[in-house]
From TrEMBL:
Cellular localization per UniProt: Golgi apparatus membrane
UniProt organism field: Batillaria attramentaria
Protein name stated in the entry: Carbohydrate sulfotransferase
Record-level GO cellular component terms: Golgi membrane
InterPro entries found in the cross-reference section: Carb_sulfotrans_8-10 (IPR018011), Sulfotransferase (IPR005331)
One GO MF term attached to the UniProt entry: sulfotransferase activity
EC number(s) recorded for this UniProt protein: 2.8.2.-
Pfam families per the UniProt record, alphabetical: Sulfotransfer_2
Record keywords: Carbohydrate metabolism, Glycoprotein, Golgi apparatus, Membrane, Signal-anchor, Transferase, Transmembrane, Transmembrane helix
Record-stated family: Belongs to the sulfotransferase 2 family.
Keyword Cell inner membrane: no
Length: 384
């Protein structure tokens, strides 16, 4: 017995095929197009914001000591030829993007292409300026990092700490966030002892001299990354677990590469506790997850053991409601230790970042009431 030609006679896949054959889009396809249009409009708004700022400051010497190191590649794809230029900025997922572009370069057919055949796409990622500085401090000075302790930590102790201990002068391992902010202000004003991790975003990339097609924000990377990958005609889908990779990479770096330098300045227990706090600052591990190792265990801790307990904590932390707020809480705690005059100096120093990339210069986490601080006794930066 036959049936009428209705959707009840066909599977979902068959219905999709019929719609495609006659040019009718499914609800899912329409929703995807609408989402893509929303992301595209946001990219256009970001470029307009940048262009307005560049027009305003075109005749002023506000851009100085620019840091730029482009990653460029050209390749053939079935959809056309592409030349990609990416300007990496530290603390904006630049390591991830470099790895991704290397994967593209390896997997696509790369070769020199003539200009008239090639679509040129330049992009970069930026980040909320205050949060970027907190991330740099947490990663390079608070977390075990003898290289940065030696080059910047000791320098900061000498310049900004009254009556420092001999250990602090020798190691530079215990820089406070307030001291770090003083260093940022001093280095920008004098041009001395600067580093790409610590300079404002406007001092990267020649924003007003180069033409960028896309400005991604780290805060929306889950939407911006797929859009840009499609725009550069990449057939690679980046689906790696950022949090898991972060834990593995950080643990390997501290326990394998930095261990001798770390142990000259602190115990392995304290180094492990700082790493744990770093993951809580980043919102990877919940602040309710206490440091899991007992004192007697830390004497013989291995990188594999530490990664295992961290992965267990990561698994328990996912989808916990407090995770989303931890970065903001850490930002609030960090800036509560900074003299307000220094906060205002930093705000002025970062003013171009706010104007060029559309970020709020006075977020509540920094300029709101200090009564909003966590009163539970938990601290993101005290390890004992």
């Amino acid at each position: 017995m036959g049936c009428a030609v209705t959707s009840a006679c066909f599977s979902f896949r068959q219905v999709q095929g019929l719609f495609a054959a006659v040019g009718i889009k499914t609800r899912e396809e329409l929703a995807a197009e609408e989402e893509e249009d929303r992301v595209r409009r946001r990219f256009e708004e970001r470029l307009a914001t940048l262009q307005t700022a560049c027009q305003r400051y075109a005749n002023f010497k506000v851009f100085k000591r620019i840091i730029i190191k482009l990653t460029s590649l050209s390749y053939h794809t079935p959809d056309g030829n592409v030349t990609v230029e990416y300007c990496p900025i530290q603390k904006t997922a630049s390591t991830t993007w470099r790895r991704l572009l290397k994967d593209i370069e390896r997997d696509e057919i790369t070769s020199p292409l003539s200009i008239n055949q090639t679509e040129k796409i330049a992009f970069a990622f930026v980040r909320e300026p205050y949060m970027r500085l907190l991330s740099a401090y947490t990663d390079k000075l608070f977390s075990p990092n003898p290289m940065f302790w030696n080059e910047f930590g000791k320098y900061i102790v000498r310049l900004f700490r009254k009556n420092p201990s001999q250990e602090s002068l020798r190691c530079g391992h215990d820089i406070t966030f307030a001291e770090f902010v003083k260093y940022i202000i001093h280095s920008q004003r004098t041009g001395m002892n600067r580093n790409g991790h610590f300079v404002p975003t406007h001092d990267h990339c020649y924003w007003c001299r180069r033409e960028y097609q896309y400005i991604g924000h780290l805060e929306t990377i889950n939407e911006d990354m797929p859009f840009i990958l499609k725009a550069i005609k990449s057939h690679i889908n980046y689906t790696k677990d950022f949090d898991k990779l972060t834990i593995e990479g950080n643990a390997q770096m501290v326990f394998n590469h930095f261990i001798s330098g770390v142990l000259r300045c602190m115990t392995l227990e304290d180094a492990s506790r700082r790493l744990w706090k770093k993951w809580q600052v980043r919102g990877i591990i919940s602040k309710t997850e206490q440091f899991p190792l007992k004192l007697e265990q830390t004497d013989n801790i291995t990188v594999e053991l530490f990664k295992d307990v961290a992965m267990e904590a990561l698994s328990r932390s996912r989808n916990k409601p407090e995770i989303k707020e931890q970065k903001k809480e850490a930002l609030r705690e960090a800036f509560s230790s900074v003299p307000f005059l220094d906060v205002l100096k930093l705000q002025k120093l970062l003013s171009l970042d706010f104007e060029m990339f559309g970020f709020d210069s006075s977020p509540l986490e920094i300029f709101g009431e200090t009564s909003d601080l966590d009163d539970s006794g938990f601290s993101y930066f005290k390890i004992h």
